[in-house]
Amino acid sequence: MTKRILTGLKPTWDQLHLWNLFGAINPFVELTKREEKSDFFLFLANMHGLTVIHDAETLKKYSLTILKLYQALGVDTSKVYIYNPADIPGHAQLNRVLSCLTIMGTMERMHSYKDALAKGKAGEVSVGTFCYPILMAADILLYDADLVPVGKDQKQHVEYARDIAGKFNRQFGETFRLPEPFIPEGSATIIGLDGRKMSKSYNNYIWLLDDEKTLLKKVRQISTDMKTVEESKNPDENNVYQIGKFFLTPEEDQARRGKFLAGGYSYKDAKDYLFEKMWAYLEPIQTRYKAISDEEVFRVLENWKKAVSGLAEAKIQDVYQKVGFRL
C-alpha cells in the first residue's frame, strides 16, 4: 500500500513565517525527495481560514500568497497534489459525518479552547474554531494520510484525527488509516524574536517575504542577555544562536557555537552574521515568489483538481454507504 503524506497551511495572513517554513513546508519538501514511492498532498487550508478572515477579497489574496509560496519554497508541482478543499465537496461532507461522531467532551480538551476558557473568553470562540480539529480530521482522513508534517502546536489535532478515525472504524468497519504526526527533531518549536515560540499572536515573527531592511531591523531586535563581549555565552540558552542554527551548515553551526562558548564574540557581530545568512537564504525564495503569476497558480490547481476530486469522492461514497446515507 502506497504511503501518503499530507499537510497544509492556513491563509490567515499574507505571508508565512519561519516556523511555517521549518516546521511544515521544509520537512514536507524533504520527504518528497526521500520517499519517492509515496503520494504527497499539499492543500490550502482556506476553509480553516474563515475562522479568522471574514472578508472575501482578503481571504482570496492571502490564499494566492500561500499557494505561490508553496512553489517558491521548492514544492514540485508535477508530483505533489496541490488543491483547494473548497473545490472538493468531500471535505465538508466528511466533516459533517465526523462531527456527528465526536462528543463535546473531546473538543473541550482542545488546548486552544482550554486556553480561552482559562482567560474567560470561551464564549467568544466561534463554533468553527471550536470544531477546527474535526475539519482538520476530515482533511487528513479523506485521503488516508499516513504522515502529517506539522508543528508541535498541531500535534494534538493529528491525534484527534487518529481518535476520530479509530472510533469510526470500530463503529462502521475499517475505513480510514490512522495518521501519525511528523515533527522533525529540532524544528518542533521555532523561537521568535523574544525567545517565545514564533507566533503572529506574539508579534515576534520573521516573515519569509520581509525585505532586506525589515529583516535587518528584526534581527537587531532579537532579545539577548546582559553578558559582556568577553563573557562566554551558552548557545543552548541564546536566542540569536537558536534562530540562526536553521540557516547554517553543520560545519558553520559548530564554528559559531564555539565562538559563543569561547567569549570575545559580541551580540552585534552575532546578529550581523545571522542577518547575512538569513538574507542569503530568503532572497532567492523572494525572487522565485515574485516570478509566479496568479495564472500559474490557477493552472496548478486545475491540473490536480480532477485527480484529487476522484480520490475524495471514492472515500465519501464508501463512508456514505457505511453510515446509511445511501438508500
Give keywords.
mainly alpha, 3-stranded parallel beta sheet, 14 helices, 7% strand
Outline of the structure:
This protein is mainly alpha-helical and 327 residues long. The chain has helices at residues 18-34, 46-49, 56-72, 90-101, 104-107, 111-118, 127-130, 132-141, 155-172, 212-220, 239-244, 250-262, 267-291, 294-323; strands at residues 4-9, 39-44, 80-83, 147-149, 180-182.
Radius of gyration: 21 Å
Percent strand equals 5-15%
Shape: globular
Instruction: Give the biggest sheet.
Output: 3 strands, parallel
Summed over residues and divided by their number, the pLDDT gives a mean of: 93
Provide the spatial order of strands within the biggest beta sheet: 1-2-3
Give the number of DSSP strands. Answer: 5
- List low-pLDDT spans: none
- Summing up helix and strand content along with how strands pair, one would put the structural category as mainly alpha
Q: How much helix, percentage-wise, in residues?
A: 40-55%
Number of helices: 14
> Helix-strand pattern, N to C?
EHEHHEHHHHHEHEHHHHH
Q: How many angstroms does the end-to-end distance come to?
A: 31 Å
